[in-house]
Amino acid sequence: MRTEREGIFVPPLTFARLDYSQDFEKADVAILGMPFDCGNHPTRLGARLGPNAIREQSILTLELIEDAAPDPLEHLKVVDAGDVNFGSGGLAHIHTFYDRAERAMREILSKNCVPVTLGGDGAVALPQLRAVARKYPDLAVIHFDAHTDTYPLRGNDHYDNATPFTHAAKEGLIDLPASVHVGARAPVNAKASIEFTRDLGYRVLPWSEIAEIPSADAVAKIRENLEGKPIYLCFDMDFFDPSVAPGVATPTPGGPTAYHGLELLRGLAGLSIVACDINTVSPPYDQSGITAQLAATVVMEAINLIPR
């Protein structure tokens, strides 16, 4: 007979070299798939397939990391907990997914294990923020993305991939002045969304403000007000330029190279990362697999930021 807890998770193709386990008391970090997208994108669907695409490409990523130092998997016990299971509710039932995702996150966090999630589109951030904020009331956010995902609501039940950080602000989940959105840029209504995001209380570092300055200076801007704060790290893969990450939900030209983006991520070392969210890989538009492989690299770089 299945227990309620068993119904939260479904087994995946595991991230390379990791055990499939929900024994979170014996783990430092748990990978968790969030196979969900809202299904309302005007031209691109498929981010729900992202978790296993990242896992597939992790095989090569892990082989490369074995030749590097330090290998984060030597210093942390990391498991793959599987995917959030929201049954056959489908894309129309976003609140069903939100409930299951939050429960899965709370299960991991309750054992003092750090969740590292694989999306899914940007909508997957909200249930994670609800769960993490419950454990860390003074939570701050670092959000790498070509968009702020903080757009005006059309009504009280407007929940989608464009509004998770709008709801997070209205629900009082995070420390807004400490939190920062990094990388917003045109042509997707950037000026209006940046102004709205700032009006809610967030810091915003548009890509135009940090693209031409040294990485160390950009990192210093990102880290302002974040020292000592528990941090939810959200990394949307369309932060990168589509020349290096074409397989995303909303490719936005003019972003960083893989080298530049990873340099900014590595610059967060020493901060208190308590949860990580890597999202928006869309495999139907990633025939060569380079976006998923880069996402697997981001996963490993994010794990390397988690305090030992």
In short:
With 308 residues, this protein is α/β, with parallel strands linked by helices. It has 9 helices and 10 strands. It has one domain: Arginase, Chain A.
3D architecture notes:
The chain has 308 residues and is of the alpha/beta class. It has one domain: Arginase, Chain A. 32% of the residues lie in helices and 16% in strands. It has 9 helices and 10 strands. Strands 1, 2, 3, 4, 5, 6, 7, 8, 9 and 10 form a 10-stranded mixed beta sheet that branches. Strand 9, helix 8 and strand 10 form a beta-alpha-beta unit. Helix 3 runs parallel beside helix 4. The longest helix has 16 residues. The chain starts with 8 loop residues before the first strand and ends with a helix. The model has no long low-confidence stretch (mean pLDDT 91).
